[in-house]
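User: Can you help me understand a structure? I only have the sequence.
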Amino acid sequence: MALHNLKPAAGATHKEKRLGRGQGSGHGKTASRGQKGAKSRTGYSKKIGFEGGQQPLQRRLPKVGFNSRVVKPLAINVEKYPAIKELAEITMETLRPIIKFSKKVTRIKLIGSEAKTLKDKIKDENITTSGK
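Assistant: Let's start by predicting it. Here is the structure, written out as tokens:
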């Protein structure tokens, strides 16, 4: 059996539709695109989610589902807690009895005008001050 003479079955293929080749072809003038509108223009491609000028569904619905992975520190104003200034050294454990904060809190930032003076007392790398 010779395999070099393969052809599609009779009636299995169609001639290519040749657009814009004169009125006699049946596909002349507007080339089967109709009269006017976006679909008749060259370079037309429907955008994903386009709804004919109506506000698309993905823009009508509210934005949802973002959680930042950046862990913000708990800000503590030193002026509100005078007991912090009297501590010999500042760590997470020494602050816990003075300020009741959750176990989920991993970082603390001391703020306020007197926070800079406490920088040398801080012995925990998870505690910072607003001062330089």
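Now, to help you interpret it: The two ends are 89 Å apart (CA to CA). Strands lie at 74-77, 108-111, 127-129. Let me know which part you'd like to focus on.
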